Amino acid sequence: MQKKIIWLYITVFVNILGFGMIFPLLPLFAETFKATAFDIGLLAASFSFAQFLVSPILGRISDRFGRKPVLIISVVGSTFAFIIAALAPNLEVVYLSRILHGISTAGVFPIASAYVADITSKEERTVYIGKVTAMFALGFTFGPAIGGFLAGYGFSFAFFAAGLVSMINLILIFIFLPESITKKAEKFVLREGLLNFKAIYHGLRGDFGVLFFLLFSWSFYISNFQVAIPLFTTHNFHMGTVENGIFFSVTGIASVIAQWFVLPIMVRKIGEIKTIFVGILLMIFGQLFAPLFTQVLLFYIFFVISVLGSGLKRPTINAMLSKATKEGQGTTLGLAFSFESLGRIAGPLLAGLTIAHYGLSFPFWLTIGVLVIGLFLFWRVEMRKNR
User: Fold this and answer.
1) What is the pTM of this model?
2) pLDDT score of 114 more than 60
């Protein structure tokens, strides 16, 4: 198990390193094609809509044919997406690259989480899924700083470099990452249909409905973060690509600390339910105060607090889903990722609209509203359980 998990960590880290190199650049890259704030939000949403369509399908495919083949296909698609963006002559081609990248990456996190579930016991699962999520955060720690530096040589140079990183990852997966499934699903059945709305409806009404909504609220927060922060920091603090890259790296470090070191202690001391509550409260607290300050240091501090809460929340929810599911791990976690994708669709679109009409701070208040709804629903469910 130890050898498998180490290579999975490396695979996840290298995958997100390439993604992290370019995502803080996207709003600024889009502006070179005269994109509006709404265009930038729609660009991010197109990526997530593609993920929403594809992630449950890839989850079921991985239950039937194995995790490794799906990861290989995902990385090949990502490589092409980076190259297309590097060569983009207009905004329409940038949209094409983001849609392809969304399709390609739809399986990476749910399948990585399913991989962990394949090779760990239920007692170990929260900690190991947290560490896989920490690898994502570690990729965000180094990726944005590298991408911000490379963007000094031109946006296309940064995209080509991300494509090279993706090709390296393909080689590592192909040679070193072993398959995790010992017993594959006997047949491939896609009950959801192409648009997956039926599964979303039944998922919200089912036993996991509140957990799915909490994942939606988490990704809504992250997607606002990705669209609003480069615009907010550039306007309010005059930060450029390098400074924004450093900012995202700092938040990545905070997330790694939360998921690798703090999460195991929290789960052991207070349990999964209270850990989720603490995570949501920290996210709300950080988002409430971060945009109120004109000093960049205070903005950093409060935003990092929200990121620490985010790092506690997401892996704990996914571990709870993994342990409770009665279907294949890929199927359930793929559906969970669809709810995250919905958040990533709604978040950028609403961020773009609200920035245009109400200013750069409004996405923070909007995010707080969604998080508070999730907190209330989770509290109500837990209170009913304890009656």
Assistant:
1) 0.78
2) yes
